[in-house]
Amino acid sequence: MTATSNGRTVATANLTVVPVAPADIARFVAGPKGGRLGIDDSTPRVTVRPGSDIVVLLADYHPARNEDALTVKSEAFEGPPTIRTGNSDDPGCKCDDGATVYAGDITLRTDVPVGTYPLTVVSHHGQQTSTAQLKVAGAPVRHYQPWLIGGVVVVLAAVGGAVLVRRRRKTTATS
Asked: Which tens digits make up the pLDDT trace of 111-128?
């Protein structure tokens, strides 16, 4: 490569163009949050219940530059989760094999029917598609919202307080 100014050569350099390496997916798995995503305990060997929280993990030996997050799609999900590098959801894998790990968590739909569902992720800026399978079976996991539990506690406390006040008034009136 040569740079010129007013017809004079001002700088020269060698430029080597190297094609981007294709994806080399080591693992693309999903399993229960807090579980182990090893070879014997991962997709599709693990069965998860509708409504459960799961972790999705993808490990790539040749990640694309400037691609720190990927979106995973499946009809079993409440919404498409984003898996990221350096995520705290990385389920404690040693990651000493040189692969870049993308991980993230998602909640399965509570109304998803029993079956096997494909998980799809597109990486390398739209150039690589990877798929995995997720088995769903069993009774749905019920999630109770903290505000709902707190609301029930407040209502019960109010009712209990009203009963005590009423008893004291009754005791005071009869004395």
From this structure: 999 999 999 999 988 888
